[in-house]
């Protein structure tokens, strides 16, 4: 029968990664799906077909029915809560792979608890729509931390997110600057795609296209990452003023548009601060 795999948490990231796993992972049995809001699991199962996925009603059932369990959950509390439930049963010999972005201390604590229960815990914070189940399936590439605390992977991920949040901020400011200076923002987008690509183009297109209100990366999730990074930086005595500035603007977006606003709404914030309409 081979390795039985389960996926817990089918949000923006988890849903995409689970879909990739089903389509490209050569799984020997249907992927076991669990999501707190069960309709999301049902929707994915209906999409891929019942020979490729099956929905369960609890975390315990998902863990019971799998040897390899992926999690992709919003934040530290959600992960701690899910793992609390998972560890209610005998998990000896199982492997947990967590794709959420959480504080490294949380990852280290969960890893220790899982190890005490005879199982393995891997922190695999995903940067993007990311070995047999990772490279070319869920993600483009795995950067490994062998024999190091799992929290190290979270620190690397949070530093990567610092780049992403800073790019988001600078693209928003650049687009506003262009419009104020009567330069077509589409031309700036074209330039960014030639010079940099990646998140510059993704966020730039979202802003120029007027999609910066859609929920892709909710500001509350971006803020969670920014706060974790700022706390770690403080702990290790490292100043990261660019992230500090980006975080303050994300806080302002949260006040302006609520916690589920997309983080690229910093564009709307920059526009209104500069006398332009909120929506382009
Ligand atoms: N979005 C991105 O571009 C991105 C990129 C890289 C990494 N990440 C990280 O990936 C993780 C997931 O992000 P996302 O964008 O997929 O978030 P999301 O769309 O908001 O999905 C969050 C998932 O967590 C579940 N959840 C939340 N609280 C829970 C709880 N207390 N118990 C059980 N399930 C709970 C949600 O279930 P419901 O459906 O019931 O709400 C949903 O399945 C986060 O740690 C985020 O920082 C996100």
UniProtKB/TrEMBL annotation:
Gene3D superfamilies: N-(1-d-carboxylethyl)-l-norvaline Dehydrogenase, domain 2 (1.10.1040.10), NAD(P)-binding Rossmann-like Domain (3.40.50.720). Keywords: NAD, Oxidoreductase. Residues 5-125 form the 6-phosphogluconate dehydrogenase NADP-binding domain. Transmembrane segments: none annotated. Belongs to the HIBADH-related family. NP60 subfamily. Residues 151-268 form the 3-hydroxyisobutyrate dehydrogenase-like NAD-binding domain. This is 6-phosphogluconate dehydrogenase.
């Amino acid at each position: 029968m081979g390795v039985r795999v389960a996926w817990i948490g089918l949000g923006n990231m988890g849903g995409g990664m689970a879909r990739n796993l089903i389509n490209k992972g050569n799984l020997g049995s249907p992927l076991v799906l669990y999501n707190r809001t069960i309709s999301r699991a049902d929707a994915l199962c209906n999409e891929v077909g019942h020979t490729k996925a099956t929905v369960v009603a609890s975390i315990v059932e998902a863990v019971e029915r799998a040897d390899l369990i992926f999690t992709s959950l919003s934040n530290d509390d959600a992960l701690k809560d899910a793992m609390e439930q998972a560890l209610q049963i005998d998990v000896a010999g199982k492997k947990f792979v967590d794709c959420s972005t959480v504080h490294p201390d949380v990852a280290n604590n969960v890893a220790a608890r899982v190890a005490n229960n005879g199982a393995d815990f891997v922190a695999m914070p995903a940067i993007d729509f990311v070995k047999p189940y990772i490279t070319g399936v869920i993600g483009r590439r795995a950067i490994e931390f062998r024999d190091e605390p799992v929290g190290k992977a979270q620190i690397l991920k949070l530093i990567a997110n610092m780049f992403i949040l800073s790019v988001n901020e600078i693209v928003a400011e650049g687009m506003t600057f262009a419009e104020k200076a009567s330069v077509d923002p589409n031309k700036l987008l074209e330039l960014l795609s030639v010079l940099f690509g990646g998140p510059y183009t993704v966020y730039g297109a979202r802003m120029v296209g007027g999609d910066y209100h859609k929920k892709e990366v909710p500001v509350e999730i971006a803020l969670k990452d920014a706060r974790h990074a700022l706390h770690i930086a403080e702990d290790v005595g490292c100043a990261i003023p660019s992230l500090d500035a980006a975080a303050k603007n994300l806080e302002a977006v949260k006040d302006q548009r609520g916690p589920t606003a997309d983080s690229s709404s910093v564009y709307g914030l920059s526009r209104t601060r500069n006398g332009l309409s909120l929506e382009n």
